[in-house]
Amino acid sequence: MALIDFKCKECGHEFFEIVNSNDKVLCPKCKSENVERIYKGKFYGKGSCSGGCSTCSGCH
Ligand SMILES: [Zn+2]
């Protein structure tokens, strides 16, 4: 489980969701599935974690 930032490619809305590995994420605004993940790093700022470990639960 990880807290992931998303941006909707349809309407540009940015949001975050707590997702499991293969959950489908919909834009809460326009219900589009056309969303992309954003790794801002602000939730993963500890230690050596670079923010690429969305499946890691031990470093933040
Ligand atoms: Zn949208």
TrEMBL record:
Residues 1-40 form the Putative regulatory protein FmdB zinc ribbon domain. Pfam families: Zn_ribbon_8. This is Uncharacterized conserved Zn-finger containing protein. It comes from Thermobrachium celere DSM 8682.
